[in-house]
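Predict the 3D structure for this chain.
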Amino acid sequence: MVVDSPPEPRAANAPAPPNRRVARPLGLLLSVALLALVALASIAVGAKALSPDQVWHGLFHGSGTYGDVVVDERLARTLLGLLSGAALGLSGAVLQALTRNPLADPGLLGINAGASAAVVTAISFFGVTSLRGYVWFAFLGAAAVGALVWFLGGSRGATPVRLALAGTAISAALYGYLQAVMIMDDAALGRMRFWTVGSLASASDSTTVQVLPFLTAGSLLALALARPLNAVTMGDDTARALGAHLDRTRALAMLAATVLCGAATAACGPIVFVGLMVPHAVRSFTGPDLRWILPYAAVLAPLLLLGADVIGRVVARPAELQVGIVTAVIGGPVFVFLVRRRRTAQL
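Done. Predicted structure below.
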């Protein structure tokens, strides 16, 4: 019996099949429409029940009533969810391309843990209480851990397995440090619980304004790297043959992921699995081309984040579950499924 060999993988820059060339733009438009609906649900649905009239009045004719205040709070957390979700989706897609590992994300590589550890250090030891101070500490922690993971993973000779192992080990150590700080500092425990779980509940207009420049810059840099990262995903030798500047692309990709993850973590704490699930799921529809994966991730990741936030507000009424808990509950089984599917495919 003759068994056909599997087809050669198609290069990311190769022309897409005709059906995919049509489906990808339509799918992106549909994703934007779904995101708009989920954003509207995030404003209209929550732990406090509001009528459609109250939601409409709060959006367009706010005058300080109870319903208007609730709508204003939900609008702020919806905007922050849109920005932070896009940041997490883009950073996950960039890191998956950079490491050539479809199961990589900022959480698995320790970047979230580094940002969180730096923020908790700022709260407990330096008395930082403003978001403006959190952002810089988060950037410092994310950059330090990203560089350490890259070094321990072998730098230019890094492999996906080494990077994952290094990130897991550093994350475990940093989360142990977080627990130790919380045990020793009762006064800061209440503030630090926000960072250990991840939540949009503390969103405000000032929060969005302060992180917006960083998220915008990181998003633009990530989108601009789509074509160079396409070359990187095909291997170092092929990338050099195509004229790609590997060191510059890798440095800029790490910078983009650090800025995006650091700002998102500073604004709403460490939220895991969003940067893993969305780019991985998108790739099965768009193919390997980062010019499509990145825009899809920027749209579908906030859709997932806001959807999880709405679920957390509804299932525990009148209280709410933090969005970080909901995404972890969803992401854990999905991650196990993805790992088992990849293992089965390699047998």
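The longest helix spans residues 66-99.
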